[in-house]
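Backbones bend. We report:
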Amino acid sequence: MIDTEHVTCDTCTAPGAPVLDASDEASRAWPATDIAANPYKADFPLLAGRPDLAFLDSAATAQRPACALDAQRRFYETMNANPLRGLYELSVEATEAIARVRDRVAALIGAVDEGGRPRAHEIVFTRNTSESLNLVAKAFAPTVLRPGDEVAITIMEHHSNLIPWQQACRAAGATLVYLYPTKTGELTDEEIAAKIGPRTRIVAATQVSNVFGCRVPIEKLARAVHAHGGYMVVDAAQSVPHMPVDVRELGADFLAFSAHKALGPMGVGVLWGKSELLDRSEPFLTGGEMIDSVTEQDARWAPVPEKFEAGTQDAAGIYATGVALSYLTELVGYENVLTREKALVHYAMSRMVELPYVDILGSIYWDRHHGVISFNVRGIHPHDVASILDMQGVCIRAGHHCAQPLLAWLGCENLACCRASLAFYNDQSDVDRLVDGLGAVWKTFHA
């Protein structure tokens, strides 16, 4: 069921009515494998207003459905007050609205108690995945890292899950250890056993690589580090928007993701952590509602999660995040997301491998790519590829994708590659335009 309190829009006939009309009902019955049709683009104002655009950069940021945009405005129009800081009605409404989103996020990622009730106090709102991971590295890591200890990460990590651990290890006198996959992105059991051992205190890894698009065996990494009494930190920025995520099944101790990659607004991130680990961590930022009491020379912290939410939060953005997640998981549904995106990747890979001048990074098997296809056009700089595609109305990403160590290890020239990332709101015509555009790129340099 759609949460009628959260998923609303200006065109609804009654307050609180869900965003459903005849076309929505038809889209829910539409076969998710039919990528020639697109029942979703109409829900996204930017895509609906730009039919000339093939947006293939959702791994960087997703487009926003109208219901999420409406929700952000509705917060300011109907309950604009600072949560937690007032006893008047507006402030109470804002506080309750944010609390409901906290419940929703906890339930979404399986952060629930034995009775299935959301452990909302374990959800910390931040600005993005980067801040969430920095919080763990700067607030929790010092409580467990000692000289001679090790932190293990994969070479596939985004800089946001790499640099914080460089700094944490440097501060503690610990060693940063890298796990290397095969050239197609698979982490072998042998590599895991060789790199995670008695000295390993923390393993931090992405669940889905933002370059390879492959899924990392988080469950195996978690079992390995837990066997030595360590902790598992998961970067779920590229997984939550595309697949169900359950922190218990993963064996995670911390997990982070960003709203803006999951159809929500920019500037809102999520950190989940086990309550006992958050309790023992020192605050990352100070001031505002993260205090319990303050004297001239000392202060006592508020309980988790407020302990880590210094200053005024982006309340409207958090409220809109709840609506965006409802749209993603309830109106569209992960089953449809997975089915449609797999069909899109299959079609894209089948067409791209026919281009003799295109080299795909990672696996040649389409089912190993979760929405992300990285590639290069032989002899042409990725920036030139992206610029020429842009003239064709095709949006891809070109550069190092915040993964310079990975691209250096792969031997990518200029530490750069191209990346096309698909979402359920894409269709066959978007892929066709990409492939036609790559043909135009090649002809430009080989006329």
The radius of gyration is 22 Å. Residues 89-327 form a domain with the Aspartate Aminotransferase; domain 2 fold (CATH 3.40.640.10).
